[in-house]
Write a structure and sequence with these properties.
Keywords: ATP-binding, Nucleotide-binding, Transport. One of its GO terms (molecular function) is ATP binding. Belongs to the ABC transporter superfamily. The chain is an alpha/beta fold. The protein folds into two domains: 216 residues, Rossmann fold (3-Layer(aba) Sandwich), CATH 3.40.50.300; 63 residues, Alpha-Beta Plaits (2-Layer Sandwich). Helix content is 32%, strand content 28%. It contains ten helices and 13 strands. Strand 1 and strand 2 form a beta hairpin. It is globular and about 70 Å long. The N and C termini lie close together (12 Å). Bound molecules: adenosine-5'-triphosphate. Adenosine-5'-triphosphate binds next to helix 1.
């Protein structure tokens, strides 16, 4: 795979506080790479260092192995939304495309296609201030991709979108990756990340905690869990083999049994005692959402953490 963007041992200080420490990852051509982490973990600072809004105190950022980051090859949807208010939609799109040296005729054609695709047909002469929040976000997304960037950085692209618009964005992001765009996606919506990302980098307190493909992360970090509906005694469940932790929510008859890494699913299921009350049983792995909460809170659902050497 071809690395479009390489972040190498990046460190960043704000006064005496080190907010990024030895951050290294790559974004490859045609992949969706997610950058995740709790609030204040360092995601935006990482992105700002990539975008040249600020510069790393340690380490390097390179694009196609070159230190010069060509701005016209990058598309960026920042977390802070906001386009010039008193300008027509098409005018702002063409202005931004022109800043990226993109041919205007082609930009206009692509803008009209995108407006149609995002249900904004006929809005090209509407002033940006007349758009709803979601519509404004769609226009800003269009602005970030209009010039056919090789690397697209999307900071919380789904926030504030209705489910239909989320689907449109998802579809478009997947399509761009398929066409070869390298995509760096920052999002707190774990279900969407789980669905979309090929690889992920998780940062916590400015340091790497997970880096690998979604499959590797699931296999290595997402231990199995078994959800049983049925009235059962907590102590009995806790004594079952390979049970790491049991959660029972008050007022429901559902128990979630978190299992150890070594568990053999088929053997474990066979070993369940006859007296256990099972109305429903689901056996699956913990979700990315649970992995995230585990790391952010130290809840210890994930038994081991480290590098996947992806
Ligand atoms: N301009 C700044 N001056 C001083 N400290 C800063 C500055 N920008 C960010 N920080 C600090 O750097 C750390 C990382 O912040 P950053 O905004 O990168 O986190 P984040 O992962 O993007 O969080 P969120 O999910 O809340 O957007 C935080 O401790 C934050 O307080």
């Amino acid at each position: 795979m071809e690395a479009m963007l390489s972040v190498n041992n990046v460190g960043k200080f704000f006064k005496d506080k080190k907010v990024l420490d030895q951050i290294s990852f790559e974004v490859q051509k045609g992949e969706i790479m997610a950058i995740l982490g709790p609030n204040g973990a360092g995601k935006s600072t990482t992105i700002r260092n990539i975008m040249g809004i600020m510069y790393p105190d340690e380490g390097t950022v390179s694009f196609h192995n070159r230190k010069e980051i060509p701005r016209n090859k990058i598309g960026y949807l920042p977390e802070e939304r906001g386009l010039y208010k008193n300008v027509k939609v098409m005018d702002i799109l063409l202005y931004l495309a022109d800043l990226k040296d993109y041919p205007l005729k082609k930009a206009r054609e692509r803008a009209l296609e995108y407006l149609k695709k995002f249900d904004l047909e006929g809005k090209e002469n509407v002033s940006v201030e007349e758009l709803s929040k979601g519509m404004g976000q769609k226009v800003q997304f269009i602005a970030s991709v209009l010039h056919e960037p090789e690397l697209l950085i999307l900071d919380e692209p789904f926030s504030g979108l209705d489910p239909v618009s989320q689907e449109l964005f998802k579809e478009e992001i997947r399509k761009l990756a398929k066409q070869g765009t390298a995509i760096l996606l920052s999002s707190h919506q774990m279900n969407l990340v789980e669905e979309m990302a090929d690889r992920l980098f998780m940062i916590h307190k400015g340091q790497k905690v997970i880096y690998g493909t979604m499959d590797e992360v699931k296999t290595q970090y997402a231990n199995f869990k078994c959800t049983i509906r049925g009235v059962n005694d907590l102590a009995m469940l806790q004594q079952l083999p390979d049970v790491h932790r049991v959660e029972q929510n008050e007022g429901t008859s559902t128990s979630v049994l978190y299992l150890t890494k070594e568990v053999q699913p088929a053997q474990w299921l066979k070993s369940l005692p006859d007296e256990i009350n099972i109305q429903e049983l689901v056996f699956d792995r913990i979700t990315l959402h649970e992995i995230f909460i585990d790391i952010a809170t130290g809840k210890n659902l994930v038994v081991e953490a480290g590098d996947l050497d992806a």
